[in-house]
# Entry
Amino acid sequence: MYDVIIIGAGVVGCSTAYWLSQYEMSIALLETHNDVANGTTKANSGCMHAGYDPQPGSLMAKYNVEGSLMAKELCEKLDVPYSNDGSLVLAYNQQDRQTLQELYKRGIENGVKELYILDEKETRKLEPLLSEKVVGSLYAKTSAIIDPWQYTIALAEVAVENGVDLKLSNEVKAITKENDIFTITTSKGQYRCKYIINAAGVYSDVVHEMIGEKEFTIIPVRGQYFLLDKNEGEKVHLTLFQCPSKYGKGVAVCPTVHGNMIVGPDAETVQFEDLATTTEALNYIKERSALTMDCINFRDNIRNFAGVRARSDRQDFIIEESKSVKNFYNLAGMASPGLTAACAIGYHVIDWLNTKERFVKKENYKETRKKVRFKDLSFEEKNEMIAKNPAYGRIICRCEQVTEGEILDCFNSPIPPQSIDGIKRRTNAGMGRCQSGFCGEKVAMILKEKLNIEFNEILLDKEGSNILMSKAKEGDY
Amino acid sequence: MYDLIVVGAGPAGLSAALTAYENGLKKILVVERDKEMGGILNQCIHNGFGLHLFKKELTGPEFAGRFIEKIKETDIEIMLDTMVLDMDKNKNVYILNTNGYKKLSAKAIILAMGCRERTRGAIATPGDRGAGVYTAGAAQRYMNMNGYSVGNKVVILGSGDIGLIMARRMTLEGAKVLACIEINPYSAGLRRNIKQCLEDFDIPLYLSHTITDIKCTNNRVSKVIISKVDEAYNIIEGSEIEIKCDTVLLSIGLIPENELSKEADITIDERTKGPVVYENMETSVEGIFCCGNVVQVHDLADNVAMEAKKAAKAACKYILEEKTFVREIKVEANKPITYTIPQKIHLPIEEKVVDISFRTNKVLDKCVIKVTNSNGEVVCKYPREYVIPAELEKINVPVSLIKDEQNSITIYIEED
# Structure
């Protein structure tokens, strides 16, 4: 029996687990998939928004601004790539300029610091390769970019080290309550607890209605992306948004913390968690991105993907105790700026729990994590590492220069990877321009050996994504 | 200090190192990232290698073996399991292996890193993102190096040679190869491979078609939708065909791998994605040469090995002799020729002829390749029965005909 069970190990669930794990309470974190950060969390632009976008007074405004302020220090503690280069909202005409003024005012009201309206010349000085059509911008200096899956994995790893029971591959099937004790039935077993935190993303309405009444609806909104080679990444320095207009919110062109360029998303309501990319949407994104930069070479695209945002029918985050189920707390509707807000949302869950009973902080808890990134080490440090462990001297992923040592490190971490993509999200192996054409086989064989599984059990990512089907014929030689 | 450092021990690197040794260089180092020499040849267990160079049909490993055995008789130093992480224009090379991270220097460098396969992202093929989509070379590695097959019902996108070879290989291993889909109206692979790998196994080749959707069931490929395209590569509505399959192999082109070359400020030709080279395979940085698929994608390993010899001889000359040339001219290409190797020629040079190779992006029957000087006068011509994009075309231009040229020569093709 646990004090708290968190449903969903995306960035919101993991942030909640991270902060709660500092208190004297027993916690389980349930996740449908075989890894954390495997839903909406892994498929977005990686932007930490400044907070000028949400309506003043909304939960989105409150948690966005607070999250944006917390993120830098948190990423340092967790040793997660974070880059605070700022963002621009680009204006194309007089009406856009007015919109920029409104966004500026909204930002100030939301408490966003370091916002500036720039003229064309100042804008181009910050980002020289913008299209001819740009006439000005809103510059938000506090906007940042992060690696969303490393961030979430780090939050979860520290939570696990502080005693949180992470239950992967546990899809929640039913929830019952008797004498104030919840029983959660999953695909793997049954777990009991006093409090439930619902962070089930696109499925948070479904999970809530397993025991409660309909209080909100999640509308899955798909967004597609291009991820371009680092050659293209050199062209962009700031996160570049287009001014929202009657034609929609526009698509963003952003750098990633790894040095690539990411272009997208569009926004399309879908019926379920449909992660397919489509020709129509990709063409739309390509076309719209030219307004920001018309020199993007899409021949240097290395990957397309889609993410599904969990937009709620309230046009805001839902952060509240269920009205129909006592001791059941919803963290739902985490559409953009959900990634930015997640750390602040998780941080405040204790405030609600403390209205129920008094939880005290542990004497000893971890709040930091360290990770070896061989590529970023100095000449001397590289040699020191190799002297300690020769596996750091063997490159597995040539595009991203990831060593065998770093891949082996994952298997000694609190949440060992279960798939090739699990290794990718932890080390960047396979994320580069050859998209694992060269290293995929090496990584697969390491995974097979470390997990002690058969070749036909090696997964690319989720359950069912087995990469090898049969053995080659054997003959007499 | 080494005389020569060769980066890569595939057919280009091995042939270059051996030639340099035979031409009198003493301190030669070959750096190879894999655990054995041979490069991509090790996974090419089919035959067809060596016909030009050894007048014999060899498999890839046998072809590599010819070089490896000879190299073992020399005192060429080989560093395996070693990756070059960085390089500069002063010919310093930074290598990483289990012994440490070191800086090495050489009088000359030969780049022979080969190429990589284009991926699904490069052509933005839409659809689901489960398992079951591989580049043909990756599937070949699983099959021939690890002994595992990636799937049972296979559709091949692109008709590059590796895809064709894998169509046959997967079929022989009991898989059903349902179709080979090529967006161009012509095949990207060698004629002999179309015959021996598709036609002989009754595998249909769909020209002017592409995959317009990949569908997964339970996170593994379950079907593809293919559609016909028009001359401008626009998808023709209503032409969709559904093929149930569990695997898609991509054979949609190769890209020379020049991230290291860029570190040394070597000028890259946007058309080839390889270094701009002179007739002796020297790059824009003096003393750094290159050969094989790092320069341009070749059809045959034999040609790679021969180009490597040229680079090695030039590297020896660079180290051991005074240079003869004082100026350079450009080699220009007119449509449908997409590029030429070399892009520049040093003058004057001792050689009697300059080899110029190129590809077209159009199938041409009976035609004449012509070389003109900067006044537009034809200096030499080469009749051909056909020129096709899948086959690298080569001409030998007598140096005597271009030796007085000041600016450039131009190569073009006229159909009869």
